[in-house]
Amino acid sequence: MGAVVRTNSPVSDPRVFYGWFVVAGTFAVTFVGFGCAYSFSAFLISLQHDFAASRGSVSLVFSLAGFFYFGLGVITGPLADRWGSRRLAVIGMILTGIGLGVASMARNLTEVYAAYGLGVGLGIGCSYVPAVGAVQRWFVRRRGFASGLAVSGIGVGTLVVPPLAAFMIETLGWRETYLVLGAFAVVIGAGMALLIEDDPRGRGLSPDGDPLPAGQSIAAPAGVPIGKAIASGRFLGLYAACAICSFGLFVPFVHLVPYALDHGVSQSSAVLLVGAIGVGSTAGRFFLGGLADRLGRPLSFLMMFVGMGLSFVIWLFSTSLWPLAVFAFVYGVFYGGFVALAPAVVIDYFGGRHASSIIGILYTSVAFGTLIGPSAAGFAYDVSHSYTLPIVASVGAYVIATAILAATSKAAISR
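The chain above was modelled as a monomer; its predicted structure follows.
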């Protein structure tokens, strides 16, 4: 039987359920962290020019950061379960700001690897999984919607920050732009992270804001033990599917702008394509998360893999602005749904008691694909001067990942 907590805290006003403030704090953390991270494509050409580096070498900067911010979840998830999500989220936003600030002073690409790759990677790694894990404990009936709303900060950040960064690079320079983004991460990101709380028990509430009679004991969230969860067929299927699909997952965030420039699209228009991913991603997180609550989250999660794979087929045949914009939006919708539903599906399968720990372990699958995928696409371009091979390989990865997920989640889908 789970532990219980007695609280003398007054019951929160049910008209203003504090869970939505936790969602707001997580929205801000994901907006700042991933908005800064996904603006990297706006910096790629400047870094390539100033450091006389190949596209593959510069792409490795993003790959290193992605490896750390997804891979660290296996550490920061359990730490959040033990120390609290708010503390780690605040530390993460401060580290992100420091990393961006130090990157602005880099004298060579190696120092960019260290400052951006480690600083931003460690910062988002400390904040993302703890913040998202906290949201899951505050909701049951509307978990898909709340999770989607919280991580829609990634989509809005992808819409807003890359075009803003591109404008600042043109007017201020890439070094000054990194300084501005670093200050933004510390002030806004860390400040809003203070809203995050671990679960509703300290406020005398059950998930979804349901009040409890005065003096009643509040049980800790139920959940499958970590060892049993990660040894299950469902978890292994989730892990394998996420690992395989992640080889193509972030290729558009790094290479869509250079691809568009290679095909004659202007710089100002090309950078808006990343914003189009953000628009689609925001729509996917808002609408698909809530829709999945009604249709079933396991089946809906599977559909996200299908949708992302099909969108890459659009990219394969797109060489001008508007077809590329269609790809960016469609991909963003399904990518946004993928990010929104992944933690909700984990909690549906394994309960909320060890939410951050299990989510963190799952996200290590994405870390290795993120480390290899964008940089491999860059090196493939350096050799062939074409992105055809990386795009086709990504489609193949989505097909395999979809088949694995369908096979291992069949029981959950059929219920």
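The two ends are 26 Å apart (CA to CA).
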